[in-house]
Amino acid sequence: MPSPQLPNSMAARDVAHVLHPYTNLVKHEAVGPLVIERGKGIYVYDDQDKEYIEGMAGLWCAGLGFSEAALVDAAIEQMRKLPYYHGFGHKTTGPVVELAEKLKAMSPLPVGKIFFAEGGSGANDTLIKLIWYYNNARGRIDKKTILSRIKGYHGVTIASASLTGLPANHKDFDLPIARIKHVDCPHYYRFAQDGESEAEFVARLAKNLEDFILAEGPDTVAAFFAEPIMGAGGVILPPKDYFPAIQKVLQKYDILSVSDEVICGFGRTGNWWGAQTFGYQPDFISCAKQLSSAYLPISAVLVPEHVYETIRENSGKIGTFGHGFTYGGHPVAAAVALRTLQIYEERDMLGHVNAVAPRFQTRIAKLGDHPLVGEARGIGLIGATELVADKKTKRSFAPTAGVGAACMNFAQEEGLIIRAMGGDVIGFCPPMIITESEIDEMFDRFERALAKTM
Ligand code: PLP
């Protein structure tokens, strides 16, 4: 890694001028950034031309890897034709209309309309506002509390960071806001009680949810947000029967459910949508990231017909539906997203994910035998290993020990970019185009890194 001490290097200029997201800013001044210059397939290259397998597809997003020419062509074509326009008032552009049609056709829900934003946070923020607007329009002015889960991740705006159930996103930001409350995390490995079966664990979480709703007052609880797999919270897969049990409770108290498919959408778990993999039918979906393979920022909110009808009528009464982003439904981003979805179909991306996922999952499962790995978990092309100090007792390392971060650094030395999350969880979420031999290469590099971590 180039030293930030080298005068005038890109690393030194970065340290001098860039305020980094999600970074220990004190440490950053000492270690400097990894400067990534170019990409090819599942690989990226730094400014010394060192090659890395991008084991996280960037931030769980570059599904088609880092050199898909068809997406570049789609962007250039649209840029030349019309580089920007918006949807405010009664305007639209072709790519936005076509993308909405395509998403509706792919949706597992009876979707009425699609709203476009720029990223996952904006999509989830939009959903909270839509749900409040909807309940106000129906005269349910007290039904406003939004539930999400401990360890969930839904973004970083004031509302979406409040949905997020991770301490670092709240501490000293004066969050979460009062109307957003957190319920149990469905991680059996970490949160099951001694001797509790998976079925008992699920039943306890469903009962806790019901008790929580009753204590709050069901007429005050509007919605429940959940990722099918918790991503940034540590790639946490719920037990098989968790979502059906939770949905039963939500339906009983007329509480809307949102599936945050920002990571799980578009094939990552082996189905187009994570909700399909985990057997539930939400009322709304938010999606982003692999929607455009991350080549341009775009997100979407899938809104059911009956909710849309109420919003439509209310906007008529008020005079406008007063919400929208300057860059929401950007025509170039929409053209790239449309092309991305076409490529997923043309190249049978679902078939590919399901063909290579067994190799990926076999290699993840094998890591479970390692003395440092407490739990190895995953589905489709997403997975994680949770590093522990004591396998038997599941005791974690002290947060100050920095074991996950050390492992991530060793992986980088070996030419692999992965992500260490809280609790020393190492995530894997490579571009979906990865082949079986590349999967082997990725885990071979990781095993060498893990050996150095011991
Ligand atoms: N929801 C989930 C599940 C995410 O993983 C993320 C980002 O990682 C977000 C929402 C927020 O998306 P963005 O960073 O585009 O605002």
Task: Tally the structural domains.
Answer: 2
| Proportion in β-strands | 15-25%
- Indicate the overall shape: globular
- Unreliable parts: none
> Structural class, please?
alpha/beta
Separation of termini?
Answer: 23 Å
Listed once per kind, the bound small molecules are: pyridoxal-5'-phosphate
Mean pLDDT across residues: 97
Find the CATH topology of the largest domain. Answer: Aspartate Aminotransferase, domain 2
User: Radius of gyration in whole Å, from Cα?
Assistant: 22 Å
Architecture (CATH level 2) name of the largest domain: 3-Layer(aba) Sandwich
Write out the CATH superfamily name of the largest domain.
Type I PLP-dependent aspartate aminotransferase-like (Major domain)
By DSSP, the count of extended strands is 15
Strand order of the largest sheet: 4-10-9-8-7-5-6
What's the total helix number?
16
Largest sheet: 7 strands, mixed
Helix fraction bin:
40-55%
Determine and state the CATH class of the largest domain: Alpha Beta
Keywords: Aminotransferase, Pyridoxal phosphate, Transferase
Pfam families: Aminotran_3 (PF00202)
GO biological process, one term: gamma-aminobutyric acid metabolic process
Cofactor: pyridoxal 5'-phosphate
